[in-house]
Design brief:
Elements lengths: L1 E3 L2 E2 L11 E6 L4 E6 L2 E10 L6 E10 L9 E9 L2 E8 L3 E2 L3 E2 L3 E5 L6 E5 L3 H8 L17 E7 L3 E8 L5 E8 L16 E6 L8 E7 L5 E7 L10 E6 L5 E3 L2 E3 L5 E9 L2 E8 L3 E4 L1
Parallel strand pairs: 1-21, 6-12
Antiparallel strand pairs: 2-24, 3-4, 4-5, 5-6, 7-8, 8-11, 9-10, 11-12, 13-14, 14-15, 15-16, 17-18, 18-19, 19-20, 22-23, 23-24
Length: 289
């Protein structure tokens, strides 16, 4: 059994620890993550040659996203279209503080330096709740009241795959697959297809967990799920699980996390012919497995 203890990032975000969530690879030693307390930028970290230790972190401002158009960013995925890299950022879509709606699905055109051109999709949360009626009631509740809380995001061939932290029920997690034309001329709800809700069974039927992030290998149907407690209360341990789109069961990996860990983002990558896993932590740390 591998036990993960995060290493603190070598830098902070304006004198506060990075609240790191979704993460993707954009270069041989470069990865981008979101800070869910800072919806105005993405953060690009560069590793040492062995991709073990973070050397530096660059703030990449999002150009084109006005205040309120992206709240509580949690999910991040990479989509390659005709040689161009797109990054898609997703809000938690939750209700916070009684009446504040966290909305946002933003398409980012990745570039090597400077500001990142970004396009928010207007009305994504309402569009989704209208087409997945089973989530409508949860969409009116806050996360700690078993309300809607979306934290995972991955690319699944021709669709965005969202992972729900909540609502949750014992022994299951919910994924929502939404076909999307990420490289299209316009980034609107017209770019999306009919959502499909997917129920995945977990090995411990009495334990309630939610999805914290998803990482997938394009075209294979294989995904890595980062799981944790579904609300802010309780002591359900974080776990990693594997799932294939052709199956309705996930399998837990022999990986546990130190009590100080708060993993919120995961991505798989290959270096030197070996597949590795990068985990980022909303307490301001990371780990490479």
């Amino acid at each position: 059994m591998t036990k993960v203890r995060p290493t603190p990032f070598p830098e902070q975000n304006r004198n506060a620890p990075f609240n790191a969530s979704g993460v993707v690879r954009v270069g041989s030693r470069r990865f981008v993550f979101v800070d869910n307390k800072d919806p105005t930028a993405l953060f690009e970290m560069t590793f040492d040659p062995d991709v073990v230790a973070v050397r530096r972190i660059h703030r990449r401002p999002l150009a084109g996203v006005a205040k309120g158009m992206l709240r509580d960013p949690e999910g991040l995925t990479r989509v390659d279209v005709n040689g161009e890299i797109f990054l898609v950022v997703a809000s938690s879509l939750c209700v916070a503080d009684g009446n504040r709606i966290c909305d946002g699905l933003v398409r980012v055109r990745y570039a090597l330096d400077g500001e990142l051109p970004a396009e928010p999709m207007t009305g994504f949360r309402d569009w989704l709740l209208d087409r997945v009626p089973a989530l409508a009631a949860a969409g009116r509740r806050e996360p700690d009241a078993d309300g809607l809380n979306v934290e995972g995001l991955a690319w699944d061939g021709n669709a965005l795959l969202f992972g729900l932290r909540g609502p949750a029920r014992p022994g299951h997690v919910t994924l929502v697959r939404v076909p999307a034309d990420v490289g299209g001329a316009r980034w609107t709800t017209a770019s999306l297809g009919q959502p499909e809700s997917i129920d995945v069974r977990l090995p411990e039927p009495a334990v309630t967990r939610g999805v914290r992030d998803i990482s997938g290998a394009a075209g294979t149907g294989d995904f890595l799920l980062l799981l944790g407690r579904s609300t802010s209360h309780g002591d359900t341990p974080f776990r990693l699980a594997t799932w294939n789109r052709a199956d309705d069961h996930a399998a837990l990996l022999d990986v546990t996390f130190h009590r100080t860990a708060k993993p919120e983002g995961v991505t798989t990558f290959t270096i030197g012919g070996r597949q590795r896993i990068l985990i980022v932590d909303d307490a301001g740390g990371y780990a490479v497995l």
